[in-house]
Amino acid sequence: MSDIEKVKQLRQSTGAGFKDCNAAIQEANGNLGKAVEILRVKGISKASKKMSRDANEGVVALSGDDKKASIIEVNCETDFVAKNDDFINFVKELSEINNNCGSDIKKVKSSKMKNSQTVDENLIAVITKIGEKISIGRAKTILHDNSTNFNYLHTVVKDNLSKLAVIISLQSKITSGKIKLFGKQLAMHVAASNPLALDIDDIGKDILKKEEELVAEELKNTGKSEDIVKKISLGKMNKFKEDNSLLNQPWVMEPKKKVKDILKELNIPDLKIKDFFRLKIGE
Questions:
Q1: 61 and 149 share a domain?
Q2: What is the residue range of 11's domain?
């Protein structure tokens, strides 16, 4: 096999550029296996330099079914790369692996892909080929007994890839058209309203503490009496809790009612919102 043919083969197998492949062939004295190793080492070096950059673009991938569903975020530097075929193909396969691994990222990264290389190895190869920082971000798998998952994708890039994805898990012993419609609408509601928790008591203490600090700072120099400030602060905090707990949010389809009112009106005794997860790229 001539050096030119080896370069072509190396380009096909690694996706690296002509100059890099030619240099690797020369350095390896024509040994293709060694040339692949040389490119991998150089690729890791290049990838490491790129990993210090900001990566606020990318896609959110959804996979699974109505019993077990997963979301995973993959970041890149530009929206142009988020639409690149190599990037998209990598993320789509990664999404299925993530669902199989239950969003255990350590397990995901060490899993083998279709080309028999690990996710981490393929990630380095994609970074080297595309020339941007690419990183695997947040991930979540939802799986509950007697529950049905519903999802919503907003700003779809391609197929199961979007800029924002939501999974809702509704628990009930029965299935009905009313539940299916509510599940789809609720997923859209979560996408638009971005609740922090299911109910007021579920909002994290750290989040509430931070909000209290912001409210205190806001009211510090108003000149109002301490009693008045306390009342205003209490009112603001109660409003914050309601605005950020799913059950207490105004229903997007009918804002005069709350989500918990709609749930009650469905009149399905054992129906409850078991879980939800919302993921927006770069947020």
A1: yes
A2: 3-50
Q: Which of 50-59, 77-86, 100-109, 247-256 has the lowest mean pLDDT?
A: 50-59
Strand partners, 75: 58, 135
CATH number of the domain residue 12 falls in: 1.10.8.10
| Distance in angstroms (rounded) separating the CA atoms of residues 150 and 163 | 17
| 206 in any annotated domain | no
> Does residue 219 surpass a pLDDT of 90?
no
Handedness of CA 184, 187, 191, 192 (dihedral sign): positive
Confidence at residue 21, expressed as pLDDT on a 0 to 100 scale: 86
pLDDT of 155 reads: 94
Q: Which of 111, 137, 165 is the last residue of a domain?
A: 165
Residue 238 pLDDT greater than 90, yes or no: yes
DSSP letter at 273 equals: E
Q: Distance between CA 100 and CA 228 in Å, rounded?
A: 55
Structural domain includes residue 133: yes
Q: List Cβ neighbours of 102 (8 Å cut-off, separation of 6 or more).
A: 70, 141, 143
Domain boundary among 142, 165, 188: 165
pLDDT of residue 48: 67
For residues 127 and 133, give the distance between their C-alpha atoms in angstroms, rounded to a whole number.
6
Q: What is the mean pLDDT of residues 231-246?
A: 95
CA distance readout (Å), 272 to 29, 156, 168, 189, 251: 66, 29, 11, 16, 16
pLDDT category of residue 44 using cuts at 50, 70 and 90:
low
62 in a structural domain: yes
Number of domains within the chain: 2
